[in-house]
Amino acid sequence: MAVITISREYGSAGDIIAEKIAESLGYQLVNKKLIEEILIKYGLLEFDDLYNSEHGVWGRFDSEKNRIVKMLNKTILAFARRDNCVILGRGAFAVLQDQTNVINIFVREDRYRRINNVFARKEAGNILEAEDMVEQHDRVRSAFLQTFYGLKADDPSMFDLCINTELADPGMVCSLLEEMVKNLSGLSTDRKSTYDLEEDAIMQSAIDEVLRQK
Q: Tell me, what CATH number does 130's domain have?
């Protein structure tokens, strides 16, 4: 029925929303771990380290990074073609722009709340470390989207819904998303959708193999 992409600021409730809506709808959750498992099958072992690099490597373009991002895009497109999935992060909203059966949402939260969330989740040893992690993730996300998709990380026009999780808890957001998925059936079908994407049989086979092991 639908593909939902969830982009989020680090430290917000985006991950929680992705898990809850995938469970509620019975959709496949496509998160960092699952995408990494697919990329590993193609020999791209370094993606996560590269993505989270402290030195802002996404601000510089070269053929190797371009190859990695092309494979990332192929993975996202392959999952989208399967339909009924929630894709968390990894620039999926940029890859799937203007697809009629795709809902792109962005989850944000106050910077200081995000810092406290990171510390509370024990992702950082202290508040100062949590602050550094939030700033680093924001820089990396911004550079990644600008370098490879020519997009600004905070451009609301790229999303169907922008949510501040200070004002809407994950349960409220999931209820709204469920209604949005239902409303997709009433949209015009003359626009392109993920059903029109060309099938990559080799990629689909790799996905099948990884999912069978779950």
A: 3.40.50.300
